[in-house]
Amino acid sequence: MDIRGAAKDIYYPGPASQTPAVTVSLDGAAPSSVSGTQTTEYAAGQYKTALAAEQMDAGTVVVTIVFAGYQPVQVVIETESDEYATAGGLAAVASTVETIDSKLGSAEVTVVAPVAQDGTLRLSRGADYLAADGRALSWQDTDGGWPSLTGAAVKLKLFRGTSDFTCTVVDSTTVQLELTAAQTADLPYQYGDYELWATLALGSEIMLAYGNVVPESA
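RESULT FIELD:
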């Protein structure tokens, strides 16, 4: 169903009693702010943002949601196919914006270049990210918010899981990933997101960290 130019409500969870900063980008244009009056907390920790018709007047609408103290989350709406309009689609949106309290606990995560301190992952296609060069991707729990990673299997999922990489568990609180030039050459040159997932020794699945992916020239 084509919903270009049609007003649309999007639903997502978040920390209770906060008003997120919401912006909209139309077909790659510079983002514009969505009025705070367009977002309501209709139940504790449950939010709705009502996008006006002019904020949906594009083939691809990128909605960025930022709660204070949390990393931004982007929702991409393909208006010609009405992605995320179905109940299943809305559930997919909700899974991407669950709060750090529910998915990450209270963990304080220290990251190492090329992962910025705000969690943003900056990658150049065709570049090596090797430990020997001091450029491996690394995440570390510094305040005991993660469960022990001893015996865990950890994967980095890029671009909504279209590219998965197996990480090395350095110790019970540290994860590292090396990428070769051949591996990064196959990555799309586009903005996106990533999630760092662990399968613990007893089988539990948890997300350790997430953030944005920003392409850079090699």
